[in-house]
Design goal:
4 copies of one chain form a homotetramer. Chain A is an alpha/beta fold and 255 residues long. Chain A has one domain: PAC-like subunit (Rossmann fold). Helices cover 33% and strands 24% of the residues of chain A. In chain A, strands 1-3-6-7-2-8-11-9 form an 8-stranded mixed sheet, sandwiched between helices. In chain A, strands 4-5 form a two-stranded antiparallel sheet. The C terminus of chain A is likely disordered.
Chain lengths: 255, 255, 255, 255
């Protein structure tokens, strides 16, 4: 079992836009896409299981165990704008090779749904707490740069210097080999903490680009809740590894 | 050779219950299942060898080398209750991907024997020595929760926070994909030491659930013996890694 | 997708000489081959993508993401000397097994182009800053040693003591199994720093061997530029790993 | 290329005994088998290359690069005793799974040559310098124990406590699954240093068992030479890893 796809439902979409948000730096991608899925009431259409994920189940509120997975959600745009596909999930691959295999699965789905554009969402960790949120961007085709001007996006030469690692990067790189346009939108973040503030900034810009409206009213509170939840998860995880990031008074503030 | 199954004997069982107990946190699962196999005089029916196990043999009392393996044992219930299958062994997979491959082998066996229910046994390491043994539980189907009420089992939201890693978790997760009911019973344990006391607690509860009787007379002594043996094994192992857990006076007592 | 070859152009070459220069000790191989490709205006003919490379894209000056890759360039020699093939790229394999798989791809290309000789370029890290650049050499067939005499190359018994790791070594070793002659030219280098000075020394000797002329005028400056660029890359990389090599006053000078 | 077998020569042997000695604890196995091959002038019949070996070449006295490999040698016994096959080489697998794959190759060769018995040679590291050399033993079939009595071999319950790792162990374990008898002879050694003294002790006993005569005159000196050579190799290797074992005055003597 390299990768198992479990089809939940078949939805008829018109050349949708595909938005990836898996766990990564600052959990920015995951926060953004999980929020969009919830607010838009997108429908789960595919579950992806793989031996490249960590070999474990996660336990929910009711003591029910769920095999680690990624999920694809679909949203039909009733107002004439673009239909959307979302890629969300618990984890990314634990192995280097698995990232390639899984991304090819994600792109197979893109081709099946005749996806015309991919947005991948990530965090760009700069190593210090930012005073003011900002967003940077990378594309897999220079012709895409023009349409990103006019939004609240900074363009920085050769940044991130270490490239973009994981699904957010590979969907652009492997997508280009398949002729699929891809844009990576990165919330600049410390890299130390889960960063819902950076996620909000990314959502605002993404919604402008997609011309959709998302309730922001609920967002601040949910961001706080999510932060609490994920911080607990991270604490548990890091405690085991002896790698807990302690509160550091030198930080100007906590997001 | 990904996985080699060596069939020792074919036994006719009636939709047995399948109980997994491989090495893991506190050796709880292994202690429980090895004890049940011995007390019930269950018959070995399958040996499983795999390149996902450590590349080594173990040496017994007579200087005979045995390839690292997992084993399946069968027990026919003469009193009209459920027949039992047991999964026991020396090690779990050394690689993340191997856990998935091996668990699929374990579940193939489940399907061949028309298993109606899986119990996986593990330890839940909390990081401190417990005053009083306790047991928690996870299921792979919410409908199973009801029948677990009335036993000495605590239900805790989202615990273990880090999920259940290895065969105990994956047999639930991958089992659900095959439509097999699964319950994981975890003895709460420090996680620092082999914990036969926690294993005894789990055995008592498991025997109530299964409605079987197991000699407990012998158990306390065997638990002590087992503890001695495995402690020696662990010492040898940890010494090599410079990771010996020294006696810590702050512990209230030693289990 | 183990390895993906993307053919850019088919070029007609006459039993070319194949020169490998991928990232490695002191970046010597990469500096040498990237310089030769640029100065000779060699044409890119093949791109190689693989799951054995790091799972990421790199970002260029224009915020365009490029999937990590290796590349083959061709150069037709108009003056009657040998045609050349170059192997260049961003990274080597991240896994031990991947080195073997990728090298077999490199050698498949060699056979398709009827390559008569391979030169692999690398750095030999000695652990201290050298006063005077020097070059050592290894061959995959003792009969090749004679023709290397008379050049500025030292022969040292059993050096490098640790062998030659990665593509530079495997192309000789696996090449020999296919009957392809191979010579590894190593610039002796500290191993601590990117070393364009050692690369220059290797280029001079290689050009003598190949009887080609390469502008050296531009080289010193480009070496300095390259050093600056790659040092930044390395800093970013090492910072993340907490493995930055700090300036050490005991070094006589910086190359 | 998982494993490549290169047949050098076909030799007609009569149910030979197969003796494995690859690098491992104290280099005991390698020292023993390399000495036997040299003294008996055994003929190389097979070379084994594999992606499971380190991805590198080794450099000899003449600057010739050799791909890392394992080798099988054959020796016909003209005096009516058993013919011998030897398994020697530069390295063992770098991955856990590779040990299984390679051992299956070694055993395929055993079956092709109708091998009737395997001896694997290893070192048993006890963590301190021994005053007096000793040998322990493990078998893959209890019936083999009897014939080992009367030799200078100690039998110790459950030792080595950590089992026997790598080819020396797996050839017994996987060999048993194929019905091939196997005995592992281990020279007890500190585990810190290459140990030709322990190797000599093993050779003496092995020659008694096999009823062959090996020049011992040359042995002491060659052991010293070998020790010098391999110590240098190890130093180079360990220096790179920052894991050099410094001279320790508490050692009573150096072997």
């Amino acid at each position: 079992m390299d990768v198992i796809r479990r089809e939940i439902e078949k939805v008829d979409l018109k050349s949708p836009i595909y938005i990836e948000g898996l766990p990564g730096v600052g959990y920015v991608g995951k926060l953004v896409v999980d929020h969009l899925i919830k607010e838009l009431h997108a429908k789960k259409i595919i579950e992806i299981y793989s031996k490249y994920f960590p070999p474990q189940v996660l336990i929910d509120n009711n003591s029910v165990a769920h095999l680690v997975k990624n999920e694809v959600y679909a949203w039909k745009n009733d107002k004439g704008g673009d239909d959307l596909l979302f890629l969300a999930g618990d984890f990314q691959s634990v192995s280097s090779e698995g990232h390639y295999e899984l991304t090819n699965t994600y792109l197979d789905i893109a081709e099946e749904y005749n996806v015309k554009r991919i947005y991948t969402i990530g965090g760009y960790g700069v190593g210090y707490i930012l005073e003011k949120p900002s967003i940077i961007c990378a594309v897999n085709n220079e012709s895409l740069l023009d349409e990103l001007k006019g939004y609240n996006i900074e363009f920085k030469k050769e940044e991130p210097g270490g490239g973009i690692v994981g699904a957010a990067g590979l969907m652009l790189g492997l997508g280009a080999l398949r002729g699929i346009e891809g844009i990576c939108i990165m919330g600049v973040t410390s890299g130390y903490l889960v960063d819902p503030k950076s996620a909000q900034e990314v959502i605002k810009t993404l919604c402008q680009i997609l011309d959709i409206e998302i309730s922001l009213e609920d967002l601040e509170k949910r961001a706080e809740d999510m932060e609490e939840i994920i911080k607990k998860l991270k604490e548990a995880e890091y405690t085991a590894k002896g790698a807990v990031k302690e509160k550091d008074e030198s930080f100007g503030y906590y997001i």
